[in-house]
Amino acid sequence: MATRSRASRRGRSGRARRAPASVRGRDTRVDSLRGLVLIAMFVAHCAPSPGPLRLFNLTEFATAPLFALLIGIGAELGDRGSRGLPAAFVRAGIRAAVLVALGLWLETWGAQVDIVLLYLALPTLLAPLLARLPVTALAGVATALWASAPYFMESFGSKAAEAAVRGDQVGARLWNVVFTGTHYRLTTLLVFTCIGIILWRAMSSVRLNWHIAAAGAFSLLLAAGLMLAKEAGRIDFEPYSGTHLEVAFCALLVVGISGVWLGLAPDHVDIPLLSVAGAMTLSVYVVQIGYLAWYVRSYAPGQPDDSWANVAILTALGLVLPLLWRSAVPREPLTKGPIEGPTAVLTRIFH
């Protein structure tokens, strides 16, 4: 099935709202959403069939956009620190450098997956700047990127090809990451990062969270309408294609999923099986690639990795290993994860 991809707040009424649940300063609702996205990623990478009503195909549309959306939410949640934007850029630069280094390394492992980390590095780097823009500017950036992305893909495709012919692998890769990627590209992922920032600000300003849930449900209804029209042959859009219709469908889908989850989840909710995994997303991603590389290189050479057994194994590993790590390594900041902990040591220097 899978294409290879891969403080207390106050409402308008002035009534104090409960602070979101947190573990060591983290919003566990957001971490739990990340945990759900991890499971969606395992399905997108390994599910051998589209499932009932082709629902599992939706993971192909939603997973990478949700990760980009969560980068935007993380930028809004993150402490900007007393040193302002320059320090925020340095912290983001450290995280982006980790993503790039890991992404390039993971590509050498041989898994049948298009490593998304390189493509998420630029949204991570730019998120602190986006988080300082007003909503109207964010909406303008997202709309401009949505409108121009297909034209960028077409216009710069020849540039990437020319760079590859010249042997300029770095140049070809940059064109690919920013404009012309087969599955991912900065010009579309940034749309969802902007949406994440806007969504979280809406969460902080509306009177009741169920308003966000209702907006999310309406967004899902619109997405369902587009999918029904696609299945009836009236319109056509494919995951990762970067067309106007595909990006719009992805936006409706991820706004719906995140809006319903964040709107309906109680402020005090904590589902450790999801939230702990969600707090260690990068480490779980590495575990996934390691397992899939072993599967196709040693366990079943030459065979695809699509199987429900692999979905189940990855889900078990992805949810249980973070809990075991947190139990075995309770000391901050290493309890954040084998990759997240050392990264936090570096970023905290600039708070």
From TrEMBL:
Region ranges (Disordered): 1-26
Keywords from the named record: Membrane, Transmembrane, Transmembrane helix
UniProt feature, compositional bias: Basic residues: 1-18
Superkingdom to which the source organism belongs: Bacteria
Spans traversing the lipid bilayer: 56-75, 87-106, 126-149, 183-202, 208-229, 241-264, 276-296, 308-325
Name of the featured protein: DUF1624 domain-containing protein
